[in-house]
Design a protein that fits this description.
Number of domains: 2
Shape: globular
CATH class of the largest domain: Alpha Beta
CATH architecture of the largest domain: 3-Layer(aba) Sandwich
CATH topology of the largest domain: D-Maltodextrin-Binding Protein, domain 2
Helix content: 40-55%
Largest sheet: 5 strands, mixed
Number of helices: 11
Strand content: 15-25%
Distance between the termini: 50 Å
Order of helices and strands: HEHEHEHEEHEHEHEHEEHHH
């Protein structure tokens, strides 16, 4: 009888929920896609009472998202009041050697979906199609300026992988890095670069207004809506790996099972709401939710794949000791 009476008490003690402000860290600037995702999650959680404690978005942009991760990992072990959202750029830049912040020390909590990359030129460009682009760069790799939001970031890596698969000498490309997708988009529209590849939501308005020509998408199948008429690279004969801009969330290192379970419930409830689903559809973001255990396995596999890919692309450089 004593054991039976003790069990509920032990279970109650094992329960956990945040009892003060939660910081949701964003490795990007205000107004960016990552920022928008976090602020939408915050609003839904609070409006529906899914997370009762206040949630505050905290922007820590820079360093291929490593500044945000270092902030998360610094003296916050075991504290469930800190979350960080990130793109695969954090992993690809670590695999390349651009930063030395070991993301694997954090606690995986959730993956919330993916966006796929579109390739675009200005509407007045002589490049009419993806095949035109491959032909031009195969003949003269440095003849066009290629914009990317972050040298070493996942957008850059997917561009290199597509062009390498198309027979282009990627070591001679004229790549121009920007601080974010919005800056690269502005450069394309202003004629400062010849082509850009970014997530579909970044270019949607410009495509609909006729300012750009989208020539291909890096996706397993054609995207819907305004991009339904745009072929995939595979359709164009380029057998490149499909690399998406997924969004995952981690917590501080060393979180307890009770803390992980709380955030599992919070994120599972979030992605089931109509508000989240409609926002994802509007932003062309797939609803590929993964819980904490699935996210752990996913991130491990993604990093291993990225390690192999960046080595094949020849972009790895020496890295200082991880921290």
């Amino acid at each position: 009888m004593a054991l039976v009476a003790f069990a509920p008490a032990a279970w109650a003690q094992a329960e956990w929920k945040p009892d003060r402000n939660v910081e949701f860290i964003i490795g990007a600037t205000p107004g960016s896609q990552l920022d928008t995702i976090v602020r939408r999650a915050q609003a839904i959680w609070q409006e529906k009472g899914l997370v009762e404690a206040p949630v505050t978005p905290v922007n820590k942009a820079g360093g291929s998202q490593s500044i945000a991760t270092a902030y998360l990992l610094n003296q916050r072990a075991g504290d469930g009041h800190y979350l960080e959202v990130f793109y695969p750029t954090l992993l690809s830049s670590y695999a390349i050697g651009n930063h030395n912040v070991d993301y694997s020390r954090a606690t995986p909590l959730a993956c919330l979906g993916s966006e796929y990359y579109v390739w675009a030129v200005r509407a007045d460009s002589l490049i009419q199609s993806g095949k035109d682009l491959i032909a031009r760069l195969s003949s003269d790799p440095g003849s066009l300026s290629m914009g990317t939001s972050n040298i070493g970031g996942i957008g850059h890596i997917q561009m290199l992988s597509v062009l390498k698969a198309g027979g282009v000498n990627v070591g001679k490309l004229k790549m121009v890095g920007f601080k974010g997708g919005s800056e690269a988009r502005t450069a394309l529209l202003g004629g400062h670069i010849d082509t850009n590849s970014t997530s579909g939501s970044n270019m949607l308005g410009d495509k609909q207004s006729g300012k750009i020509r989208v020539i291909a998408v890096n996706a397993p199948k054609r995207l819907g809506g305004a991009y339904a008429d745009i072929p995939t690279w595979k359709e164009l004969g380029v057998d490149a790996p499909v690399i998406s801009g997924w969004t995952c969330v981690v917590g501080a290192q060393g979180l307890s099972q009770a803390q992980i379970a709380y955030w599992d419930r919070a994120f599972a409830a979030l992605v089931k709401t109509d508000e989240w689903k409609s926002d994802a559809a509007r932003r062309l973001r797939s609803l590929e939710y993964k819980n904490s255990s699935e996210t752990r396995a996913f991130l491990k596999a993604e990093y291993q794949a990225l390690q192999t890919l960046v080595k094949a692309l020849g972009v790895v450089k020496p890295r200082k000791n991880s921290r």
